[in-house]
Amino acid sequence: MRRTLVAVMAMAVITPVALAGCGKDEDKGASAWMGTPSAGASAGPSAGAGTSREESATVPISLAVTPAAGKTGVPVSAEIGLKVAGAKVTTVTVKDAAGKAVAGTLREDGSAWVPSSPLKTKQKYAVNVVATADDGTTKTAGTTFTTMGKPGKKTGTGLYLFDDHTYGVAMPVVVEFSPGIKKADRAAVQRRLFVTTTPAQPGVWSWTPNGTQAYYRGPEFWKSGTTLKVRVALGGLPTGGGRYGDRDRSATAKIGRKFEMKVDNATKKMTVVQDGKTVKTMPVSLGKKSTPSSSGVMVVMEKKADTIFDTTAELGPDEGYRTEIQFAQRLTWSGQYIHSAPWSVGDQGRRNVSHGCVNVAPGNARWLFDRTLIGDPVTVKGTGDKLSYGNGWTPWDKPWSEFVKGSALPVPAELK
Q: What does UniProt list as catalytic (predicted)?
């Protein structure tokens, strides 16, 4: 069946898009490799520089700090750049014009200090940095700068993740951008997308071709019980074309049990596997020849106990229709769902009659609906249509070797 999307997971998402239904179409945790700040990397963002004295080190210490002293018009996303040799940065202190300390953390590689939230506009900041050599010798450097005013143009952002929610094992971290980020600007944006997993699991960011979404996933589904901690630190960040990120976003969520739905067009059946064991099989009816279901690895994106599929605006009053639907679970933006279809029970397990959705009997639809989580994986195979990348949360539809090619930053050899 087809219907117009009213909204999908309203969390912090940018402008909703109207879409049709059923259409074609350890454990410290691991930080994301692209430059997550490390909370234990410094003496603490609010710690003072103290009265460290400088002495002659065995190896001379060099320490340079950016932004340059006296610089104005600095974006409120500004990081304190650190270039040090012969020592390690041990303290970074940033204070506003009122003398209040600003919270922040060092990047894992020590290349910069990242504020925990955007700085204030048109504000003067003072920075003091202390580097300490192995023999205890210290060197201090500082700078001052003034931030820019409010930007005239912004990039809208969204994060498809809620605090304190539990998701399926295939839940990617999905960040959305409007307008999309051009290739030349993606690396800078990606450096400000931070993910920590507990227990530690590897992961990589990858962009959709049009730059409207970036996905974060690992080589395998997340382990049950994983905690995902995400910060999208884009508030005030230059995103290209004179635009700046609209705001910072963050969420901490859990991953639940492993629950997979596998649909095979050859048998017209869905097999449900939980924690490695088959718990149920059920007959299905998929898309007919003129409106085939998409084959690929999808993810449950939205659940509606009751909704209406409405195609009258899309197809006109003669060919379109409005149909009440129960237990609908969205798989694609273009409108592929799993849902209750009492009218096709006689066809389920025998022939395909839908407009692209996975039709199941009312009792089976209710059984699934009561057990699924947003982020549960759904694999459909053997149909006449291939899932289009980006039509839904599709990062699992690419093999890992292809997925990592979508990163805007170099991928470490151990993650390729």
A: 339, 357
For residue 324, the one-letter residue type is E
Q: Give the model confidence (pLDDT) of 146-180 as tens digits.
A: 999 999 999 999 999 999 999 999 999 999 999 99
Mean pLDDT of the chain, nearest integer: 89
- Residue labelled with tokens 């982020």: 375
> Once rounded to an integer, what is the mean pLDDT over residues 178-201?
98
39-147 has CATH 2.60.40.3780 classification: yes
Name the phi and psi angles at 303, rounded to 5.
-130, 130
Q: Is 367 helix (H, G, I), strand (E, B) or coil?
A: helix
Cis peptide before 179 (omega within 30 of 0): yes
Contact 100, 120 (CB under 8 A): no
Distance CA 336, CA 388 (A): 12
Closest CA to 89 of 67, 75, 117, 108: 108
Q: How many CA atoms lie within 13 A of 130 on its CB side?
A: 20
Could you tell me the CA-to-CA distances from 240 to 35, 54, 152, 153, 282 in Å, in that order?
Answer: 20, 42, 13, 10, 49
Please give the model's pTM, rounded to 2 decimal places. Answer: 0.86
The three-class DSSP label of residue 365 is helix
Which SS3 state, helix, strand or coil, does residue 366 take? helix
What confidence score (pLDDT) does residue 309 get?
A: 87
CATH fold for the domain made of 259-397: L,D-transpeptidase catalytic domain-like (2.40.440)
Give the residue-averaged pLDDT of 287-291: 94
> What are the residue boundaries of the structural domains of the chain, listed by start?
39-147, 152-257+402-415, 259-397
Phi, psi of 45 (to 5 degrees): -65, -25
Q: Examine the residue annotation and report whether 22 is marked as an active-site residue of this protein.
A: no
Structure confidence by residue, pLDDT tens digits, 204-237: 999 999 999 999 999 999 999 999 999 999 999 9
Q: What's the CATH architecture for 152-257+402-415?
A: Sandwich (2.60)
Before 377, cis peptide (omega within 30)?
no
pLDDT of residue 46 exceeding 60, the answer is no
**What SS3 state is found at 308?**
strand
Distance linking the first and last C-alpha atoms of the chain: 40
- 124 DSSP β-pair partners: 146
Fold: same for 39-147 and 259-397: no
From 22, 165, 355, 357, active-site residue: 357
